[in-house]
Amino acid sequence: KNEVEQSPQNLTAQEGEFITINCSYSVGISALHWLQQHPGGGIVSLFMLSSGKKKHGRLIATINIQEKHSSLHITASHPRDSAVYICAVSPDETSGSRLTFGEGTQLTVNP
Amino acid sequence: NAGVMQNPRHLVRRRGQEARLRCSPMKGHSHVYWYRQLPEEGLKFMVYLQKENIIDESGMPKERFSAEFPKEGPSILRIQQVVRGDSAAYFCASSQLTGGADTQYFGPGTRLTVL
Q1: DSSP assignment, residue A92?
Q2: Residue B90 CA, distance from chain mean position
Q3: Which percentage of chain A shows pLDDT scores above 90?
Q4: Å from B44 to nearest chain A CA?
Q5: Which residues are bridge partners to A5 per DSSP?
Q6: Average pLDDT, stretch A94-103?
Q7: Interface test with A, best of B41, B43, B98, B105 (most A CBs within 10 A)
Q8: Do B100 and A104 touch (CB under 8 A)?
Q9: Is the pLDDT at B9 greater than 80, yes or no?
Q10: Is residue B87 helix, strand or coil?
Q11: Which strand ranges, in their side-by-side order, compose the sheet holding B19-24?
């Protein structure tokens, strides 16, 4: 079993829909990251969070440390949101600084 | 402020040749990470370096792969005697603080193709 699991693997939505991508992890962490990988391959960091909730534009990320679960929400989705969304965790302080990644969620938003 | 730079963006090598991938971190960042993304797979950690030091190389294959981050110049990921299975996208990321508590900024990646 992977240390970081994402669901769904693939998600197709119509423009304007509310989207949720889930991430569960099984190890102690110091932070959780949400990344976006564009069709051309570039990777952008969307959020880093260790508790609570963060919002940036139409994107919202939440984390529940007790349940070891995080969600990424996209409100009023748009075709330009089509990308792979990747959840990654930074291990706890005793385990170094590397990121451990989920397999990613391929999101396609149709006009 | 320029982002993380990687070159080359695309690299083609024949089996048995050497591949050198370069990464210049963001200005002011002293922590560099290398990750590999095999075709149709997720990203995997390879190595974490600070200037002149390898901090964590637990993700590096035991043979043929090496990494350095000298006092001056970019970080280098070196793959000797490449094989077809080395074909992948190699991403470098940098952070200002120890990565466990800091955002990592990714470069555009180097796509290595081994013929």
Answers
A1: P
A2: 6
A3: 79
A4: 7
A5: A24
A6: 78
A7: B43
A8: no
A9: yes
A10: coil
A11: B5-7, B19-24, B75-79, B65-68
Distance of CA B51 to the CA centre of its chain: 14
Contact flag B111-A41 (C-beta cutoff 8 Å): yes
pLDDT, tens digit, for every residue of B50-109? 988 998 999 999 899 999 999 999 999 999 999 999 999 999 999 887 655 678 899 999
Q: Find all residues with CB under 8 Å of A47, minimum gap 6, and list them.
A: A33, A34, A54, A56, A59, A61, A72
| Rounded Cα–Cα distance for residues A23 and A37 (Å) | 16
Q: What per-residue confidence (pLDDT) applies to A96?
A: 55
Do the strands A29-37 and A19-25 form a parallel or antiparallel pair, or are they unpaired? Answer: unpaired
Of A33, A97, A101, the CB nearest to B42: A101
Mutation target among B10, B33, B45 for the A interface, most CBs of A within 10 A: B45
Residue A71 reports pLDDT greater than 60: yes
Kindly state the tokens that stand for A37.
Answer: 């990988």
What is the spatial distance between Cα A31 and Cα A48, in angstroms, rounded to a whole number?
7
- Taken in order B102, A90, A88, B38, the sign of the CA dihedral is positive
Give the whole-angstrom CA distance, residue A51 versus residue A20: 18
What integer pLDDT is reported at residue B13 of this predicted model? 98
* Helix/strand/coil percentages in chain B, nearest 5: 5, 50, 45
Cα gap B90→B18, rounded to integer Å: 15
Pairing of the two strands A52-56 and A29-37? unpaired
